[in-house]
Here is the input.
Amino acid sequence: MGNIISGKEVSTALRAKIREKSLALREDYGIQPGLAVILVGKDPASQIYVRNKQRACEELGFHAFEYKLNENYTQAQLLDLIGVLNKDNKVHGILVQLPLPDHIDSQVIINSIDPSKDVDAFHPVNVGKIMIGNYDFLPCTPAGVMELIDSTGTDLTGKNCVVVGRSNIVGKPMAMLLLHRNATVTICHSKTRNLAEICANADVLVSAVGRAHFIQANMVKEGAVVIDVGMNHDENGKLCGDVEFDEVASKTSYITPVPGGVGPMTITMLMQNTLHAAERKAASRK
Ligand code: NDP
Here is the structure.
């Protein structure tokens, strides 16, 4: 059985550091990191995510500005609200919980966020900066995965890393972060041929597909590091990842569980981004 990477432990250690820095920022500069979270509508999963983000703010000494808006809120109203938050000095990070209702164009909304407050790193300016490798914010889930890989002490230089999934939120930026660390990266998706073979050649395998039981033991190299980003429900309604955990774990050197792996990292990285935005504000005052 491979070593299990505890996202909870890595996240708890990181949060302790973030809290310390957040309190120091308040003491030294009178700046309290502020995160505005906007939720339009009543999507149950989104409500849970928003609540968890608010809790994280409380735990780390951040100011949470919460906007729970009804599902008829218009795109124009949302753009006005973001315009106000862009100018508000107490707000260092703005997060619009996705998905938005159909009558609102998510990309228009993302584009309206001041890139220096775009703590999700979804704005095209921040996406471009990630591509170049000179970024202010790292996208939260891929950044969390990098922390988990680093916690194993794995040197990524020259390693074969395979990312399954090519979404703008996870797969693509994930591949870019691995590339910046000198890995040889392959991105797989639904049209990839010989997927099992490609995965079986990976020293580090990151699965971000969204299908239970997707990664089977025959797709994993002996001694690989396996990171499971997937969040699915199995036939019994139980939360699970993409990886067939028990049979795959016996082949790996390190593996993340679901729950308790990548999940706890995402909000922590959001908090880290908000802290960095507030720190940059403090530095600009010097
Ligand atoms: P998307 O649905 O946007 O992307 C899924 C990707 O998987 C696509 O690129 C798709 O390929 C690929 N895919 C689907 N079926 C196959 C297949 N049979 N073979 C190979 N590739 C396939 O999902 P996200 O990237 O947003 O999320 C992925 C998973 O990660 C989900 O389970 C989500 O819940 C989870 N997640 C977890 C987070 C966390 O904090 N733990 C945060 C964000 C996401 P194609 O592009 O060709 O369609």
